[in-house]
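In response to a reviewer's request, we include the raw inputs and outputs for one of the modeled complexes. The two entities were modeled together in a single run.
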Amino acid sequence: MNKDVKYKIVLIEPSEIVATGIAELINRNPEFKVVQTLSNPTYYNANNNDIDIIIINPAVIDYNERLDIRSYFGNKAIVALTHGIYEENVIRQYDDCIGIYDNAARIIQKLKNALEENMQTPKSDINELSTRERDILTAVAKGKTNKEIADEFNISVYTVISHRRNISQKLGINSIPGLTVYAIMNKLVDMSDFE
Amino acid sequence: MNNNELLYTKRMKVAELLSSDMSLLSILQRLDIRLGFGEATVSELCSRYGISDELFLMICNIYSFSDYMPHINALSSNDIRSITTYLRASHRFYTGVCFPTIHEAIHRLVEELDEVSRKLIDKFYDDYDSEIIKHFRYEEEVVFPYIEELLEAADPAEREYSIRQFEENHSNINEKLNDLKNIITKYLDESYSSPLRFELLQNIYNVESDLKKHSLIENKLLIPLVEKLEKGHE
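The model returned the following structure tokens for the whole complex.
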């Protein structure tokens, strides 16, 4: 195997035509390699720790079984490969989503993005806030700016923004007053902080 | 939601429109159209009330079909006046009917809450309320008069405003409403009055979806028409 390959991929796609095409496009890029193509997730070997990315067509997952892709595939970047239209919360479980009309450059870009996403946010419990997110939410509710929060936690402003985006997505609350209400109700901050 | 895929036409009966999409009821309500119109078609009812049937249909189609794009070339500058009249009526409908209902339900709900939550929700809603009133006032005091002036076409040379600025200022007024919805649905303690909460949420969902249509009328009808008018003056 080529030694320059950094990221190994398992591709799970029932259509041989599509699977061959995607694998061909990805393998042209020296950084990525599709090492295995499967038609069905049950053939996947869970002990395979050598794999970095799973690309899977959501259609092969039996929704009646409610397969939890995170526990099934372990801590790997998981990318959806879609031919059709899916509900947003189906797609949200994935680190990114490749569409059938994406060109090679776009596919590679999405794979890179998925690796980054997967490192940033452990998604084991999708809607619970992480400890770090609770801390940042508390700071937001207290009226601190992104810059102040970044300094306090020793992280970049960009990371603060990305945390805030995740918090809002999880809670379904976008405005600062709304977040403040949530924080007080959940006793993350005290009403007296505002009086 | 409506269950047929064909756009509405002037020859359809108004009662048919309503049975395919009940959200159109709120359009009739704000246009002060009285119920009991029997088998009247869209054209007949519109002419009875002195409303352009072309415009009425476009508004109904915007409400019911998310992909619908109106052919604005079919409208005249007279219709622009009717749109601003309609939008003003909409504002009155929101501030006179929808928001007072929500406000009243919130008042009843917070009576049961602990003091902290009561203050919070009250303040949150009041802030939202004044924000939206400010938004409506801006449209009525700046945007609509500008459009009316443009229609008079006195001397457009010294115009400082343009409808582009309106587009840019068109902030997302639904964000806080959506937050409130989620707070009441997900995060307010389970013990607080459920029937009242359901009723309140139903009202919020209704006004939220109506406000979205309201924005669509501005974005799909008003703004393109005024842009055309501005170009004509240049």
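As requested, we also summarize the result in words. Chain A is about 40% helix and 15% strand. The first strand of chain A starts at residue 7 and ends at 12.
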